[in-house]
Design goal:
The chain is mainly alpha-helical. The protein has one domain: Ribosomal protein S7/S5 (Ribosomal Protein S7, Orthogonal Bundle), CATH 1.10.455.10. The protein has 6 helices and 2 strands. The radius of gyration is 18 Å and the shape is globular.
């Protein structure tokens, strides 16, 4: 068990939108420490989103992220010899983190040419409330709802 809480690191805002959440998203998307490449992919994807939707790309990305963020999740807990899936509410920072990771994960799994293309497609789909990342959130909520009977085991 920890003696004290670790200090929260301050994330610098990105150059184009001056938004620390964009930097966090790019940090999650980055592979092998190639932050410049990750920023280029993200900005190319945002340009594609702007061309396709004819709307503000940053607002579209924010909307997509809000549509993907889960409110509850199930956690396994062993009680008596049986393992129960216990629905628990998620902290705000964890919601954002999970949403970003799902958006990136399902973008990578999409068919298309290049990560920017895939990411743009997933962002547009998520902003409309469809796509694999939104489906994952719905499945998570359904699982939590079906296990609501075990909510009293929550710590």
């Amino acid at each position: 068990m920890r003696k004290r809480k670790p200090k929260a690191r301050i994330i610098a805002p990105d150059p184009r939108y001056s938004d620390p959440m964009v930097t966090q998203f790019v940090n999650n998307m980055m592979w092998r420490g190639k932050k410049g490449v990750a920023f280029k992919i993200f900005y190319d994807a945002m340009d594609l989103v702007k061309d396709r939707t004819k709307q503000d790309e940053h607002a579209t990305w924010k909307k997509a992220l809000n549509n993907v963020m889960p409110a509850v999740e199930v956690r396994s807990r062993r009680i008596g010899g049986a393992t129960f899936q216990i629905p628990t509410e998620i902290r705000a920072k964890r919601k954002v983190s999970i949403g970003m990771k799902w958006l990136i994960k399902f973008s990578r799994q999409r068919s298309g040419k290049g990560m920017a293309e895939k990411l743009a497609s997933e962002i547009i789909a998520a902003s409309k409330g469809e796509g694999a990342a939104v489906k994952r959130r719905e499945d998570t909520h359904k699982m939590a709802e079906s296990n609501r009977a075990f909510a009293h085991f929550r710590i």
